[in-house]
Amino acid sequence: MKKLIALFLGLTVLSCSSEDQLNQDGVSSVDTSASVLDGKVLSFKTEESFVKEYSDLAVLNSDELKNWISSKKLISLFNTSNSSEGIEEDNVPESRVVYSNALKAVLNSDSKVKIAGKTLWLNEFTFYLLSAEDQNKSSEELLQVKNDLPIYGQLAALSKSTQSLTGRNVLPNENRVKTFASAEITVSGGRLRHVIDLFNETIVLNDKIYTSKMYLRTILQYRSCSTWRCTWKEAQNLRTLNSYFCENCNSLAWGGIERISTTSAVSGTQTYLLASWRELPPPYITVYPNFFISGQFTCGVVGGGSFSADLSWY
């Protein structure tokens, strides 16, 4: 009997030990792939882990991103940037810098991130490699020495929306933004307009194309006037959104376009992932087709009024 009890106790201890080891292995595998806060920046072990986490974040909504950022204890660019920057005037500039929420979530408020032990600073469309001497400098200080910093990567190349891109065969798509600003309407005594940004984000690191994604960003703005001038600022009116795109008009490399249809009213700036370019497995060869989109996007303001726009990339 004593032998049976001893055998039972031994098996129990062995079982618990094995379970503990499995749990530790599970935590360890998560720790090695996920980003961690290193001082004031997020740190990723490899470029691949950076791109994977960025891609995972690209499908999250604003509230989910805020929760993720809070869990990382990061002061991110997502929380400190102004969505209406560059579109305050009646005429929206043709060329602007627009980042996805996913990219802003992984960058700190100075647009820095650490990958494979290298501290990178994103300024407009260029990733600069920072030395130990420069990595603690603010964005304002780095601008003074920008021309002396080595370049590590880029967000492809900015092109004007009027430029023909149909013959491009080097990158999956140009990094640019195409904006659709509606005429203003009056809702409950206020003047509103709807601004849609259709944009591409192609990340190149160390001369390698890692990812290319198409996004749609929607902003509702109200007219704000002072004694001297009037500008457009972000409105918080509740609204519903729906897209009516051709969902299967792209090549295999881009796949289908995600449909946007809000099940409940939303407010504030909203960004949606439309499609992701990917390298196809053999026997396919790597191709870099241009992105195609056409169709209508509608915005209905709760309390009255609606906007409609026909979107296209070219």
Automatic annotation (TrEMBL):
Source organism, top-level taxon: Bacteria
Protein name: Lipoprotein
